Amino acid sequence: MDLLTVLPSSFGYVIFTYLYSWIMLGYLAVKVGTARKKYDVKYPAMYSDKEPVFNCIQRAHQNTLEVYPQWLVFQTIAALVYPLSASVLGAIWVTSRFSYAWGYYTGDPAKRMNGVYGYIGLFGVILLSISIALQLLGVF
């Protein structure tokens, strides 16, 4: 079975959404690495007792990594049936992680809420996944 004949052609947008998320994760990781050097936080320490801005930079990356696996699962489920909608929702979520991080990077944790709009993307793919599950079960 050829994967290109099984997936809808618009699944290409989903792949680009995954690539966009990979770029976002790389960016956040580089920012942590740069901050480690700037604030002299040596491995394996995850946080600094002296530099709260480093902790904010680290948390922006760590929090993204904490939610990323769940987003990937729901993004993939939603994308198998609704590739264009899932791609738009995924792009919203990924973009929001930049806004979240940039707000956090200020050193004021409250500014991480600049990325709160990402819940539209996250909850959107969760709702699409629930819809698909119910369709598969014959509920509607």
TrEMBL record:
It is found in: Mitochondrion outer membrane. Its EC number is 4.4.1.20. It catalyses: 15-deoxy-Delta(12,14)-prostaglandin J2 + glutathione = 15-deoxy-Delta(12,14)-prostaglandin J2-S-(R)-glutathione; (5S)-hydroperoxy-(6E,8Z,11Z,14Z)-eicosatetraenoate + 2 glutathione = (5S)-hydroxy-(6E,8Z,11Z,14Z)-eicosatetraenoate + glutathione disulfide + H2O; leukotriene C4 = leukotriene A4 + glutathione. Its main location: mitochondrion. One of its GO terms (molecular function) is glutathione transferase activity. It is a multi-pass membrane protein. This is Glutathione S-transferase 3, mitochondrial.
